[in-house]
Amino acid sequence: MLDKLTQKFSAALRIISGKAVITEKNIDDAVESIKMALLEADVNLRVVRRFVNATIEEAKGKRVLNSVDPGQQFVKIVHDKLAAFLGGDSEGLKLKGPDTLSTVLMLGLQGSGKTTSSAKLALRLKKEGRRPLLAACDLVRPAAAEQLAILGKQIGVPVYTEEGARDPVTVYRGALARAKKDLNDTLIIDTTGRLQIDEIMMDELKRLRDAARPDELLLVADSMTGQSAVDIAKTFDEKIGLTGVVLTKFDSDTRGGAALSLKTVTGRALKFVGTGEKPEDFEPFHPDRAAGRILGMGDVVSLVEKAQEVIDQKAALKLQEKMEKENFTLEDWFSQLQTVKKMGSIQKLLEMIPGMAGQVSEEDIDKENLKSQEAILSSMTRKERTNHLIIGPSRRSRIARGSGTSVAEVGRLIKKFEKMRTMMKKMAKMGKNPAALQQMMGR
Ligand SMILES: Nc1nc2c(ncn2[C@@H]2O[C@H](COP(=O)(O)OP(=O)(O)OP(=O)(O)O)[C@@H](O)[C@H]2O)c(=O)[nH]1
Ligand SMILES: [Mg+2]
Questions:
Q1: Is 186 within 8 Å of 102 (Cβ atoms)?
Q2: Is residue 353 domain-resident?
Q3: How many domains is the chain partitioned into structurally?
Q4: The predicted structure's pLDDT at residue 360
């Protein structure tokens, strides 16, 4: 499902995501690759342009280029833009409460998956505790009613059919009466599909729409037809009015273009995707999750969010200044340790970064060492931590006792700190590279 798009996007993001410093040129290159990926996925050209412009504009802003982790900021921008183009917040069905009958009209071209999707939706609603009734209003295709009846039996949902009926509106009225009698709360109407959008089809649908006044008018479209699925949705929306779209056959090698253009072109939300032939193969569509999946790095997004929560960027810059001037104290070190701890397991965290998986071993992160460091630091007074020079022999033995370590260990920590401080000063001057710095601090 959208594997190809995922591959392309990951490759494009790799241009940037590992870098501590990125240039406008890096952004241009990455965006160009993303553009190609979208075009190959059969996304509407206008949509691609809008996507690209919006991404570039935000990515070249000062906030990204100057940020502590520009690469990850970029990934987040692409993710958020992608989610917005996929439809923003996910929209479920808007059905009435269980005491009032709700009606869902399923429409679409021939073979798009209307009958299958009607049954899938019925099963889903049934699992949610509703009492659906399926109405077989496709009177054109031979055995259409029978197909629905078989599916209904399979999923344990009643199906209303009328032998020899000629007008779908009559069948609808019969189904409505049955639903009232049997206390069903949702009526799902399967309709006739035609090879093309023609006047007869539209008239029939309009009559059904006016009679049923459905709560949901769902267009069922085949995602494999790419751009044309979007055009079809646009036409149906203009002529009949839609409340949402179901894209079927998402399990096949669809290029994903339809899902990406739909909302921008039609303004209608993709509400469900069909992911196979079985009645269970039906999922509500969540734009943000889909974006994560396409980027193949949902984890990175949550990582960035997590990092943003704990690392205050201003604090990081202040820290850098301190390092340059050799004002870095044990107190700063202590608070760094707290930050690292807040972020959870360092190893897990690093593994979320693309390209880092498998490259960090437990030994790199000396947990025991971290723990005793923290114990020693927290046994010092604030005054001691801000000026380590006052820590003489008697203070050392007090700290050792307080932290359950030895005087030698306390001495080692202070030595290590002094060495680190000199090194940091060099680094800070050399690279002015807070990202690398933070990585070092983390270890
Ligand atoms: N792989 C896959 N096949 C699907 C999906 N949805 C529907 N199909 C298949 O597509 C074919 C057509 O599905 P139908 O539900 O009969 O389509 P329809 O729109 O009702 O067709 P008409 O009534 O002839 O207009 C069937 O073989 C379904 O099994 C899906 O999400 N994935
Ligand atoms: Mg059908």
A1: yes
A2: yes
A3: 3
A4: 46
Q: What is the CA radius of gyration of the chain?
A: 30
274 Cα–ligand 1 center, Å: 9
Cα–ligand 2 centroid distance for 112 (angstroms): 8
355 — pLDDT class (breaks 50, 70, 90) = very low
SS3 content of the chain, % helix, strand, coil (to 5): 60, 10, 30
Rounded Cα–Cα distance for residues 286 and 205 (Å): 29
Say if residues 221 and 233 touch (Cβ distance below 8 Å): yes
Whole domain around residue 138: which residue ranges?
Answer: 102-285
Q: Say how many Å lie between the CA of residue 66 and the centre of ligand 1.
A: 51
Q: Ligand 2 mean position to 152 CA, how many Å?
A: 13
Q: Does 248 contact ligand 1 (Cβ within 6 A)?
A: yes
Is 331 in the same domain as 434? Answer: yes
Domain harbouring 259, CATH code = 3.40.50.300
Which of 110, 116, 271, 277 maximizes ligand 1 atoms within 8 Å of its Cβ, making it the mutation to test the pocket?
116
Cβ-contact 89, 118 below 8 angstroms: no
- Cα separations in angstroms, 225 against 43, 64, 259: 12, 38, 11
CA pair distance 130, 115, nearest whole angstrom: 19
pLDDT digits (tens, 9 = 90+) for 127-162: 989 999 999 999 988 899 999 999 999 999 999 999
Q: Is the CB–ligand 1 distance for residue 138 below 6 Å?
A: yes
- DSSP letter assigned to residue 353: S
